[in-house]
Write a structure and sequence with these properties.
Distance between the termini of chain B: 33 Å
Strand order of the largest sheet of chain B: 1-2
Largest sheet of chain B: 2 strands, antiparallel
Strand order of the largest sheet of chain A: 4-5-9-10-11-13-14-18
Radius of gyration of chain A: 19 Å
Number of helices of chain A: 13
Oligomer: heterodimer
Strand content of chain B: 5-15%
Number of domains of chain A: 2
Structural class of chain A: alpha/beta
Helix content of chain A: 25-40%
CATH architecture of the largest domain in chain A: Alpha-Beta Horseshoe
Largest interface: A-B, 17 and 14 residues
Shape of chain A: globular
């Protein structure tokens, strides 16, 4: 059965009776999904053949529910840093996104056994404080109308003193924050990009102004907010574009209210980039001649330093007291 | 070591340098990106020719020129 967002909706047979599955199908007004044996029967495009369309798959996660953070991810000083792949793939179509190198296709797979993730997390938090990036392989805020997972993660952190959650997003929704349980352990991390980057490289994402409105909505509701100028993309007009963006952000957001800021130029694991170069031969951002250091492709140091120093200086000048984290 | 057939890389530069397989790949990637980013490889080549850096007779000088081309292509904005 098709839906405005998806060409087809598939449900793994063993996930069919999950409360989450039933709820999601209700939200999508989907009465007759197609039942499948395993999510990979659809998700793995190598098996079924590439297509431009996008399907939604509801399934159980047969693998790990929590992974330790990769070296290229910022831990923000948290010793026990994990991420959860409760949803695979994103409704946005960012040209540079590592998900394009990680997953075989664009279908969105929602693991409806999220309670298993929470159970695993509760075991971990008995041992040490856990910091979880819940929106690492997707944008949970953008999917909130379908999954309700952002709310569930917020509740999880609200109820457990040893669990902190980061929800990273480019979503411009301003209506979700006032209905969530406010906690200092739920950090909404907004990826902010110049409009030139959003227009050229982040297909389907809201523009800067709309993202800023969402930042202010989260701040107003009382949540800690992280501003992520990451990944920075190198292109002909990068300096002017990023300068104008910082001017706009500092004029519209009270930076003193922001928990912290993260800065990072684009980097990606070597295997993901190799996959993406085959898939996207016409992408300027993917075909850039990156240097490979320690298994990760990144801009040469000269470019990296210039870009990151530029934005760091602009931000430090405007608001020296806000902590700024680098990805290194 | 062999002189690169310029048809392997969409750029005259290839025939004027002595490149290993790995260097060929690097130059190929630079050419692909330059084309997508609107960077004129012909202009870079003209500059190197005018400075007497091209053509290169051996791998070592080709390495230096390749590095210079990289700076022009990857760090020019």
């Amino acid at each position: 059965m098709s839906h405005a967002l998806f060409d087809n909706i598939y449900v793994e047979k063993n996930a069919a009776s999950d409360a989450e599955t039933v709820r999601i199908l209700e939200r999508l007004a989907c009465k007759e999904p197609e039942y499948i044996g395993h999510y990979k029967d659809v998700f793995d495009m190598k098996k079924v053949g590439a297509s431009d369309g996008r399907s939604l798959i509801l399934a159980h996660n047969p693998g790990k529910h929590l992974y330790e953070g990769a070296p290229v991810c910022q831990s923000f000083g948290n010793e026990h840093f994990y991420y959860s792949p409760s949803v695979m793939n994103c409704i946005y179509d960012c040209e540079y996104c590592f998900l394009k190198g990680m997953y075989p296709g664009r279908d969105i797979c929602i693991f409806t056994d999220i309670k298993e993730t929470f159970a695993e997390l509760e075991e971990l938090e008995k041992q040490f404080p856990v910091y979880v990036c819940a929106s690492y392989n997707t944008d949970l805020n953008a999917l909130e109308s379908i999954t309700g997972f952002a709310s569930e993660w917020c509740r999880m952190a609200y109820e457990h003193e040893n669990i902190s959650v980061e929800l990273r997003t480019k979503c411009s929704r301003t209506d979700i924050y006032e209905n969530l349980p406010v906690s200092s352990r739920v950090i909404f991390a907004f990826t902010l990009s110049p409009d030139a980057v959003a227009d050229r490289f982040e297909k389907g994402t809201p523009g800067l102004e709309a993202r800023i409105e969402a930042v202010n909505a989260a701040l107003k509701a009382g949540f800690p907010v992280r501003l992520c100028f990451d990944p920075m993309i190198y292109f002909r007009e990068w300096e002017r574009s990023y300068t104008e963006m910082i001017e706009k952000v500092t004029a519209s957001v009270n930076l003193k209210d922001v928990k912290d800021i993260s800065i990072g130029s684009f980097r990606i694991s070597d295997q993901y980039l190799k996959n993406m170069r085959k898939k996207y031969p016409d992408s300027e951002v993917i075909q850039y001649p990156y240097v490979c250091e320690g298994g990760y492709y990144q801009y040469p140091e000269k470019v990296r330093t210039r870009m990151e120093d530029h934005i760091r200086k602009l931000l430090s000048d405007k608001c020296p007291e806000v902590p700024i984290y680098d990805w290194k | 070591m062999e002189r690169v057939n310029k048809t392997e890389i969409p750029c005259d530069l290839a025939s004027e340098m002595v490149l290993s397989e790995s260097m060929k790949n690097q130059l190929r990637q630079m050419c692909v990106y330059a084309c997508l980013a609107g960077i004129d490889m012909g202009e870079i080549r003209e500059k190197l020719l005018a400075e007497g850096k091209l053509p290169c007779g051996d791998k070592n000088s080709s390495k230096k020129v390749l590095s210079e081309i990289y700076d022009h292509v990857a760090c020019s904005f």
